[in-house]
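note to self: the first set is below, dont mix up w the second
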Amino acid sequence: MDRSVLMLIVLAVLIALLALMLVGWRGRQRRQRDLGRPATVPQDPGADLFSARGFYVATTLAGDPLARVAVGGLGFRSRATVTATEAGIILAIPGQERIFLPRENILGVDRATWTIDRVVEQDGMVLVRWRLPAADGYIDVDSYLRFTDPEESTAFQSTVEDQYLHSTTEGGNAQ
């Protein structure tokens, strides 16, 4: 066979694979059409409690680190600035609208070692469990964040625990 024919065959296979990936991604988005978009950042989110640059790794259905959420700007890994404010957590991802996790929707914070398409050192990611609006109320999801400095991971986790979780349970507003 001629080299140009082989190259055309390889190119056709690559295009077919890309098309199948696109069909799969669109299918995931279609299956998740009942999931809403994250809340919009309020006019006055209050004082900053924590801010650091890091990585937004993924958001998955709660307890299922392989079930990626592909709607509302949550589908792609990216660099991000993570800011914890008095009103909630803001994820500023370049090129898209900021993602807001209201403090009343934050259910917990933990550490993780792996999620869909990412494995890091033991407890190298911070997992934030929160409620995402859905057609029939809310659905619990896990968002994974990675900071380059382990001290930032610890500081962020402490901020979330102290400011969002302990303050709501002490006030009797736990759900």
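second set (the one i keep forgetting abt)
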Amino acid sequence: MSTDNRNIALSIVAAAVLISGAIMFVGSGSDVNTAGAPPANNVSVVDGKQIIVINAKGGYAPRVTSAKAGIPTVLKMDTTGTFDCSAALSIPSLGYRNMLPSSGETFIDVPPQKPGTTMRGLCAMGMYSFAINFN
């Protein structure tokens, strides 16, 4: 094998290792709501309405939320420089499908939910999702 061919082969192997490492690094991002993690503090009650805040950028955070059942709820979607598919939000149980602004707040009214209900939201590609458990 000539020196030029060997250098090309080594460059390809090095590029493959770097790309694999980058994919593993990005794919292993921490999630504040994995099993055993403390519950998210993204729910408040103001003037009799429950406000649930979800951040949309590179996915949804928190991914799992516990909320009160039986009270009017407003889902507040926060975006800051969001240009990925998480801006294309779908909440099937509400019949909601809309593009979120790249930066700003979007308020979505959620009717009172029965105890034990789980409302799910997901991006247009189905890559990112969140769940709100009403208890």
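remember for set 2: The radius of gyration is 20 Å.
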